[in-house]
Amino acid sequence: MTEVAQVTGQAWVGDQPLFGPVDLRLHQGEWTCLLGPSGVGKSTVLRLIAGLETGVRFQGAARCDLPVALMAQDAGLIGWLDVAGNVTLGARLRGQAPDHDRANALIAAVGLTDRAGHLPARLSGGQRQRVALARTLFEDRPLVLLDEPFSALDARTRTGMQDLSADLLQGRTVLLVTR
C-alpha cells in the first residue's frame, strides 16, 4: 500500500511531554483509528497531518501527500450561514460554484432536510455535528481526518452516521480519532 501521510516525532506543551515518540503512517485507501483518553495529543496529530497550527512544540516530521478534509471536534459552523451555506462553505471560499444538488443530498443523508435553512444557533449540538460531517463529506477529498465526529450524537443517530461515513468514504484514506 502507498503511504500518503506520516507523523513521526514528539510533542510538548511547555516543558511537559504531550506525546512521543510516535510513528504514524497512513496508507492509501485504509482507515486508521487513534484511540485514547482526552488530552494525549490525538487532535494535535490530526492538525499536524493537515498542516495546521497546533500550539505545541513538535520535534519530528509531519507530511501529507493528498488534499485533506478535516472535521474538527468543534463543528466550526459560521453563525450567519444556514445549514446549506455551511455545507458548501469550502467551495464558496475557493471561488467555486457549489453543487447544490450534492449538498442537498448530503443534508438529507444526515437527516437535516427540514433544517437546511436554519442557522447554527437554532440547531442542537448533535445537529451541528451532523452539519460539520456533511460539510466534510461535501469536500470529497482523498484523505479525511475525523476528530471525534460522532461524539455529540445519540446511539441511534451515531450508528446511522457511522454507516453513512463508511459508505461514502469507501476507498478513501481516513484517520478517525475517538476516545
Assembly level: single chain
Q: What's the pLDDT, averaged over the residues?
A: 96
- The CATH topology of the largest domain is Rossmann fold
- The helix/strand series, from N terminus to C terminus, equals EEEHEEHHHHEHE
Low-confidence stretches: none
Provide the number of structural domains.
2
Shape: globular
**Residue fraction in strands:** 25-35%
The chain-level structural class is alpha/beta
Strand order of the largest sheet: 3-7-6-5
Key traits:
four-stranded parallel sheet, 2 domains, alpha/beta, three-stranded antiparallel sheet, 179 residues, Rossmann fold
Describe what is shown at a glance.
With 179 residues, this protein is of the alpha/beta class.
Write the layout of secondary structure elements.
Layout lengths: L2 E11 L2 E12 L3 E5 L6 H9 L6 E8 L3 E4 L11 H5 L1 H5 L6 H10 L15 H15 L3 E5 L7 H14 L4 E6 L1
Parallel strand pairs: 3-7, 5-6, 6-7
Antiparallel strand pairs: 1-2, 1-4
Helix pairs in contact: 4-5
Molecular structure report:
This protein has 179 residues and is of the alpha/beta class. The chain folds into two domains: 3-66, no CATH class; 70-178, P-loop containing nucleotide triphosphate hydrolases (Rossmann fold), CATH 3.40.50.300. It contains six helices and seven strands, in the order E-E-E-H-E-E-H-H-H-H-E-H-E. It has helices at residues 42-50, 83-87, 89-93, 100-109, 125-139, 155-168; strands spanning 3-13, 16-27, 31-35, 57-64, 68-71, 143-147, 173-178. A four-stranded parallel sheet has the order 3-7-6-5, with helices on both faces. Helix 4 crosses helix 5. It is globular, with a radius of gyration of 17 Å.
